[in-house]
Design a protein that fits this description.
The protein is mainly alpha-helical and 137 residues long. 47% of the residues lie in helices and 0% in strands. It has four helices and no strands. α1 crosses α4 and α2 packs across α4. The longest helix has 19 residues. It is globular, with a radius of gyration of 14 Å.
Length: 137
Amino acid sequence: MPMNSLTRTAVLAGAATLALTALTGTAEARVGAPYIGYGQANNGSAVWCVQHQVNAFFKKSAPWHEQISEDSRFGPQTDEAIRFFQREVKRDLSPSMDVDGIVGPLTGTYLLILGDPVYGRDGNGEGYCEDYLPTYN
C-alpha cells in the first residue's frame, strides 16, 4: 500500500533533519572509498551495501518499489534502484543530486543516512557499510 502524503512528508522531513546533522557531523566514514556503478571497479561488499541500503530505503520510504537482489553483483536492477533512490533524494532533499546510477560521495552519504542504520549511520559512525560507500565525511 503506498504511503500517504502526510506520512511520506513526515518521514522525509525527519530524514532531511538527520541528513543535515550527519553531513555536518564528525563521523569517520571512508571518504576515499571508490565510486560504485557501471564503469567502476565494483567491490562485491560495496555493491552489497548499496543493494541492502536501497532495499531498506524502499521498505521505509517507497514500499511500492520492489526489493532488489542482494547478490553483490552490479547489474541493471541495481543501476535502476540507485537511479530511483537518486531521483527521490533529488526531489525531496538535495536538488544537487545527480541521477546517474553512480554511487559517489553524495549518494553514498544519503544511502548511509536513509538506509538501514545498523549497516549505515547508526549515530555512532560504526555501521559496516561506512567502510565501503564513498562519502563526504
